[in-house]
Amino acid sequence: MAQEVRGVIAPGKDEPVRIETIVVPDPGPGEAVVRIQACGVCHTDLHYKQGGINDDFPFLLGHEAAGVVESVGDDVTDVAPGDFVVLNWRAVCGKCRACMRGRPWYCFDTHNAKQKMTLASTGQELSPALGIGAFAEKTLVAAGQCTKVDPEVSPQVAGLLGCGVMAGIGAAINTGNVGRGDSVAVIGCGGVGDAAIAGARLAGAAKIIAVDIDDRKLETARSMGATHTVNSRTSDPVEAIRGLTGGFGADVVIEAVGRPETYQQAFYARDLAGTVVLVGVPTPEMKLELPLLDVFGRGGSLKSSWYGDCLPSRDFPMLVDLHQQGRLDLGAFVTETIQLDEVEKAFERMHKGDVLRSVVVL
């Protein structure tokens, strides 16, 4: 039987979010209903609210979530009611050309639940953020979006692996292939950038340079593992990074802002044959201009990181294990815990740079 629960809706572009009653249908084949325990407030949710992703309003926001599987549909074998799971937004198909070549983290046919959740008041279909919609007491997802992890871990920190923390750590380890002794620069020290710093430290980087325009964020970056900081409002970040790397530039530069000007900084701040990783999310109108001769002459790699190039079934449990061993402090990313009716205020604090992560606890 379909259920009615509370959820946070973005009704239209730049309109304040509001709590509405939503209808969650019974799971169909390949689907699962999950009772949400915690969900982080990610900048991507703000992009949805601002119309920066698409205009398929109304959106059911929230996607960095952990909870307990309540029910599953036919043909679901990997998860069962009672399983503690972290939700992911790229359920791999296992059949596309990337999956068949043994590279499921690049899956070209990821999927979400086929059924739609709706507004109880009007029956209008909702667009769940990143196919999840977890600012709600319960949500409907594809069963492949549920990744089982150790139920002893706190939902408040486990859920963060569902997006920002995984994207940043994966950008360093999976996409950037940061290795022992490498020099790494991270431009943009929000949640994703700080996760990239934590990932670079896990990988054994010798020098980790954090770049931002906010001294508060730079101080937080130091606590995450940055060995050096650069305020790019007062210093040229390219020259500063070169100065800290013997004049050469960093082996890996991770751009976690998603703007043309910061991408150019990343491009010129890397060593010859170094790697640039774009994990910041640009908006559709942004364009990049680089001299093609410079692209050719500097060699190396220019990479985009899709969700940290992660495979949730492999990476989520591993990162939870590292957290429980005391080697990865996921709790450091949680600035505050809030209720569903505080999401709009959390967006305001995020915009001002006052929080690393607000986490909704249900």
Would you give an account of this structure?
By secondary structure, the protein is an alpha/beta fold. It has two domains: about 5-160 and about 330-360, Alpha-Beta Complex (Quinone Oxidoreductase, Chain A, domain 1); about 170-305, Rossmann fold (3-Layer(aba) Sandwich), CATH 3.40.50.720. About 25% of the residues lie in helices and about 25% in strands. It has eleven helices and 18 strands. Strands 3, 5, 6, 9, 10, 17 and 18 form a seven-stranded mixed beta sheet that branches. Helix 4 (about 165-175) packs parallel to helix 5 (about 190-205). It is globular and about 65 Å long. The two termini are about 20 Å apart. About 50% of the residues are buried. The mean pLDDT is about 95.
Structure at a glance:
The protein is of the alpha/beta class and 362 residues long. It has helices at 43-49, 97-100, 155-158, 164-175, 191-203, 215-224, 237-243, 260-268, 292-298, 312-324, 343-351; strands spanning 3-10, 18-24, 31-40, 59-60, 64-72, 84-87, 118-119, 127-128, 138-142, 146-148, 183-187, 207-212, 228-231, 250-255, 270-278, 301-304, 336-338, 358-361. 26% of the residues lie in helices and 26% in strands.
